[in-house]
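Narrative summary of target 7.
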Amino acid sequence: FFSSRRRHTRYIGDWSSDVCSSDLSYQAASWTLMHVLQPQRLARIESQAQRSWTVGDVYQLVSQATWEQEPEQDPRRAAIQRAVQTAVLDHFFRLAQDTNASPSIRAQAEYHLAQLGQKIKRVSQATEGTFAERSHRQQALNRIQRYVSRLEGTFRQSPNTELPPGSPIGQ
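Modeled conformation, tokenized:
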């Protein structure tokens, strides 16, 4: 659960300073996203889309709350923000590849990843930021581009349906 990155302190058992806060932030965000972006929950949202929210709305709100926020100025808070953004990206990748999720849910996750990649690219071109922020955005963009390019190269044809034995109807 905890990372190997630990700070040395004078107090034995001082977990508040032993554990890197960005590692805990990633774990907390990951746990939360596991429940928010659960395929079965998203399928229920999709089936009730005409009533209120859509799956796209959920994806957009998660992105707005994480990737579309101004970078934190405090270095410690900025590290936490980047950890949470990474957790969000990881969950979108998992959801896009989850064979237990409906094809529509996976397709929307793939679409949202592509859209997020375009937004990250625009932000990267428009702003400087710290070295850590720039490298974080570049790594996220590279991951999204690799994922999308892999999708383009792997087309899976649906298997042919076998004809049932016997003669066709009407003959």
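Confidence is low (pLDDT under 50) at residues 1-19.
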